Amino acid sequence: MKAAGLGAGAVGAKVLISKVAPNMNPKLKSAGAIVLGALLPEFAGRSQMMADVGAGIMAVGASELISGFVPGLAGIGEVDPSFDDSVAGGEGEYFIDDDDNAINGNQ
After folding, report:
1. CA triple 72-79-35, angle to 5 deg
2. pLDDT reported for residue 10
3. CA distances from 9 to 2, 27, 49, 87 (A)
4. If we measure between CA atoms, which residue out of 48, 62, 46, 69 comes closest to residue 10?
5. CA dist 27 → 14, 60, 63, 67 (Å)
6. Are 58 and 42 in contact (CB under 8 A)?
7. How far apart are CA 35 and CA 94, in angstroms?
8. In tens digits, what is the pLDDT along the chain, a chain of 107 residues?
């Protein structure tokens, strides 16, 4: 159940940070998520599940806050749109010429 709580908190934090007050400074929203995650178990009856949800919220808030100060350091975010993955993916290349024909029985 710990993983479910952490996951729910993480997803909730991502939604909270992206949807609430879209014009607000992202660093402030991330710091707010950390505070909310820390306070959640205190106000939700101190259950272990709420503690796990709070931990998930704090983790995402901290990650977003770190990436706000040092982009790319947190490791959670969008891929650089200038990244050329055609080399890594082998786009348009075959390991053996016409191997798709051999696999499909069209020799």
Report:
1. 50
2. 92
3. 11, 18, 10, 37
4. 62
5. 13, 12, 11, 9
6. no
7. 52
8. 889 999 999 998 998 888 888 888 989 999 999 999 999 988 887 789 989 999 999 999 998 888 888 876 655 555 555 655 555 555 555 455 556 666 666 65
What is the distance between the alpha carbons of residues 21 and 69, in angstroms, rounded to a whole number?
20
pTM for the model: 0.65
In a 13 Å sphere around the CA of 107, the CA atoms on its Cβ side amount to 4
What's the rounded Cα separation, in Å, for the pair 58 and 37? 5
What is the spatial distance between Cα 46 and Cα 29, in angstroms, rounded to a whole number? 24
